[in-house]
Amino acid sequence: MSQLTPEEEEKILHGSPKGTYALLLVFALIMAFGWAMMFFGRFLMHGPVS
């Protein structure tokens, strides 16, 4: 395994976790889509409560 230079190590340690942010964004979009499908497809389609 290659050794990292101190500059590369500093960059890795203080960089933002872009992959984690991407996964969180994808998960949030999936959850929002699922919520919208439940709300509009399931609840609003059945009309008001009698």
Notes on the structure:
The chain is mostly helical and 50 residues long. The chain has one domain. Helix content is 70%, strand content 0%. It contains 2 helices and no strands. It has helices spanning 6-14, 18-43. The longest helix has 26 residues, at 18-43. The chain is rod-shaped. The model has no long low-confidence stretch (mean pLDDT 89).
List keywords for this structure.
membrane, mainly alpha, 2 helices, 50 residues
- Residue stretches low in confidence (pLDDT < 50, at least 5 long) are none
The largest sheet is: none
The SSE string, one letter per element, is: HH
Count of alpha/pi helices:
2
Keywords: Membrane, Transmembrane, Transmembrane helix
Transmembrane segments: 20-40
Helix/strand layout:
Elements: H1 6-14, H2 18-43
Question: What is the structure about, briefly put?
Answer:
Helices cover 70% and strands 0% of the residues. The chain has two helices and no strands.
